[in-house]
Amino acid sequence: MTKFLCVQHTYNGIEAALFQEKELLQKIFEDKKGSSKYFISLLNSLLDSCNCTLSDISFIAANRGPGPFTTLRVVLASLNGLALSIQKPLIGIDGLDALLQEHRNPKYPLNVALLDAYSKDVYFGIDHKDNPEFQKGYKNITVLLAELKSFTKNLEKNSQIHFMGNGAEKYKQEIFSTFGDQAYFDTPIVQHCSIEQVGKMAFDKWEKQIDLTDQLLPLYLKSRMF
After folding, report:
1. Do 111 and 179 belong to one domain?
2. Which of 28, 34, 53, 181 has the fewest CB within 10 Å, making it most exposed?
3. Strand, coil or helix: what is 43?
4. pLDDT per position in the chain (226 positions), as tens?
5. In a domain? residue 225
6. For residue 16, which of 69, 50, 2 has the smallest C-alpha distance?
7. Do 152 and 204 fall into the same domain?
8. Domain ends where: 149, 167, 185?
9. Quick check: is 40 in a domain?
10. Mapping DSSP to helix (H, G, I), strand (E, B) and coil, where does residue 65 land?
11. How far are the Cα atoms of 44, 52, 81, 132 from residue 135, in angstroms, in the given order?
């Protein structure tokens, strides 16, 4: 049975989990204030709680962003070093893809994932029910909402847009000001993808033996047209 470590940053800290194939065995969280200092001890505590060692795992998975720059960089740099030292492959997962795959609802013509990029900017992922490819990028929230408003003129009357992510919560009032009742939010608003989803997507890649690497780089999104 394949066991693997899975790690992801959040805006509040670091999550780590041990999986056996798609089954989550145990997970642990460290607040961002101590995430850099205690990162390795966090992983050791996780493995010890499952009577597991690094030699027992087959690979290491990680959410490679987008997200807070410093935390994301610390996590991936640490995992790159760990993977090199134990000679295990790495698998990276796009956090926007994971968020949309986990929480999109096909009843809405548009599902929009927004993650806070600070200074009125957001990382965005957009899933159109008639277009299976996610559109992703990085934009000022006001500009993005204006472009979405223009795009939604082509939707059927009374169609709603499903918003998710911590950026959706942060800019909820601006979204409502732009879309009114056309904007839909889950209660509570999901903040980011779960580590369970990251682990599931990583194990799918492992089974197919795709996207295995010896180094993970942070996913930084540049501006692009919607």
Report:
1. yes
2. 181
3. helix
4. 899 999 999 999 899 999 999 999 999 998 877 666 778 888 999 999 999 999 999 999 999 999 888 888 889 999 999 999 999 999 999 999 999 999 999 999 999 999 999 999 999 999 987 776 678 999 999 999 999 998 887 777 778 999 999 999 999 999 999 999 999 999 999 999 999 999 999 999 999 999 999 999 999 875 443 4
5. no
6. 50
7. no
8. 185
9. yes
10. coil
11. 37, 39, 32, 9
Pair (112, 87) in one structural domain: no
Integer angstrom CA distances of residue 177 from 41, 116, 174, 184:
46, 19, 5, 13
226 located within any domain: no
Length of the chain: 226
Residue 197 lies in a domain: yes
Range of the structural domain that residue 205 is part of: 3-93+193-213
Instruction: Yes or no: say if 201 and 101 are a contact pair by the CB < 8 Å rule.
Output: yes
Structure tokens at 122: 């957001």
Among 90, 88, 86, CA closest to 76: 90
Q: What angle do CA 30, 93, 186 make, to 5 degrees?
A: 75
Q: How many domains does the chain have?
A: 2
